[in-house]
Amino acid sequence: MGSERIGSVISRIDLRGDALPEGADLRDLLPRAEFDVQAALDKVRPICEDVHHRGTAALIEYAEKFDGVKLERVRVPAEALSTALEELDPKVRAALEESIRRARIVHREQRRDEHTTQVVPGGTVTERWVPVGRVGLYAPGGRSVYPSSVIMNVVPAQEAGVESIALASPAQKEFGGLPHPTILAACALLGIDEVYAAGGATAVAMFAYGTDECAPVNMVTGPGNIWVAAAKRYFTGLIGIDTEAGPTEIAVLADATADPAHVAADLISQAEHDPLAAACW
Predict the structure, then answer these.
(1) Which of 40, 124, 199, 274 has its Cα between 20 and 30 A from that of 254?
(2) Which CATH superfamily, name and number, covers 37-103+127-241?
(3) Residues 13, 30: contact at Cβ < 8 Å?
(4) How far lies 116's CA from each of 108, 109, 129, in Å?
(5) Can you give the residue ranges of every domain in the chain?
(6) What DSSP assignment string belongs to 122-152?
(7) Residue 185 in contact with residue 83, Cβ under 8 Å?
């Protein structure tokens, strides 16, 4: 096994030709990022409680502190959504529309019908799937732009029949305090008009507690960094969550027939998520 540094960024471990160990020793060959949600929780707790007590004022203050933007309001104006869609690159729009179409096919098929089982004469058990009333969806935007996160969260909620959907994404200094325009355009394509310029733990707190601009939700879903994961843990029990997603890890198993460009694209698409992300080939 050889190990070297490529530049000053990527560690390379070459396992070709080596006899690989089994069990725990194999896991030790590839280092994994440290991910201490509990430690992050101690820093997230006072931020969440500040949003609880001060609402929009706290969100505006944290946007200036963490994102470097001074907001006048947290909710994104409707005209910003329509403008973002009008100015979207036609090729990007076509790609998003196709992604939405494919996602709908999958999630529509996942919907389950009500089913009743007769256990004994006069005794039945009915399984019924009921959508939550209101969800808060999170689309990351601190280091890159992820309209895919908008699609992968909004489409399942719509297909499940959720009546009230709100989405949050970090304020971007480059775009005047609004979330990235591609995020806004994806929301417009999906008919989501309740969008907030809020990021990280503050967005989760806004959804959980509600503010004068945003009504509280029943459930929060969407990927994010360790601060988002910690906030989800903090609010578990008050609201539903999807999961405490950690730093991205991807492993691509490929042989000589694989297209190197496709393999590289898959690795980069995951590695860009976070400095703690791990991408292996």
Answers:
(1) 274
(2) Nitrogenase molybdenum iron protein domain (3.40.50.1980)
(3) yes
(4) 21, 20, 12
(5) 37-103+127-241, 247-281
(6) TEEEEE-----SEEEEE---SSS--HHHHHH
(7) no
